[in-house]
Amino acid sequence: MDLQRNQLGLLGRPGLLLIDMIEGFTDPACALGSESDRAVAAAAQLLAVFRANGWPVFFTTVIYRDNSEAAVFRQRVPALNLLTAGSRWVQVDSRLAPLAGEQVIEKQWASAFFKTELAEQLAAKRVDSLVIGGLTTSGCVRASAVDALQHNYCTVVVEEAVSDRNLQAHRANLFDMHAKYVDVQSLEQTLQQLQQLAAGNATTMEQA
């Protein structure tokens, strides 16, 4: 039997979190990569809306600067050793290139929150809810979405803006995240919510 759950949506100052949309994951030429053009294109649409409204934008990348960092994780998945400082694989995909002032958070493990400054940066930017896109659905997206809930953020994972090397894992994890942790919804529905938020914020400013 399915659990009862409430669709929470977004609050007044959302932040966009694009997880590991880096060359090493978006370029199939890399051992870690897969075809993810659809997710990149959806992320670009979200990025344009957030930039137009002046809402906070955060990227993550994975960088290993010495052999001691995430040693067990790297033993488990040796291809992670490609993600070294200075490598092209750790650069955000050029189609989503960060602008000045947009935070790029370095991480070494799956979650964007684990042993990073993300929580502090979200608080500093007064973010009250999150929109998530990125790679991969069953890995770093899921880990970050669960941690977003555990940091008390209403969170939306945008279905078209996430991708996985395995379609079955992609679908299963979207189902499971929506069942327990976050709102999983379409790009169209998310863009509509963001448009409504922007209109509401504009009305509030006019009345102030």
Structure overview:
The protein has 208 residues and is α/β, with parallel strands linked by helices. The protein has a single domain (16-203), classed as Rossmann fold (3-Layer(aba) Sandwich). The chain contains seven helices and six strands, in the order βααβαβαβαβαβα. It has helices spanning 23-26, 37-53, 71-76, 118-124, 137-150, 167-180, 187-207; strands spanning 14-19, 57-62, 103-107, 129-135, 154-163, 183-185. Strands 3-2-1-4-5-6 form a six-stranded parallel sheet, with helices on both faces. The model has no long low-confidence stretch (mean pLDDT 94).
Short description, anyone?
The chain is α/β, with parallel strands linked by helices. It contains seven helices and six strands; from the N terminus they run E-H-H-E-H-E-H-E-H-E-H-E-H.
Structural class: alpha/beta
pLDDT averaged over residues: 94
Largest sheet: 6 strands, parallel
Q: How many discrete domains?
A: 1
Arrangement of strands in the largest sheet: 3-2-1-4-5-6
Helix-residue proportion: 25-40%
CATH topology: Rossmann fold
- Estimated share of beta-strand residues: 15-25%
- Taking all Cα atoms into account, the compactness measure Rg is 17 Å
Uncertain segments: none
CATH architect. name: 3-Layer(aba) Sandwich
Count up the helices: 7
Query: What's the level 1 CATH class?
Result: Alpha Beta
CATH homologous superfamily grouping: Isochorismatase-like
- DSSP strand count: 6
The end-to-end distance, rounded to whole angstroms, is: 47 Å
Principal-axis shape: globular
Order of helices and strands: EHHEHEHEHEHEH
Seen as an oligomer or otherwise, the chain set is single chain
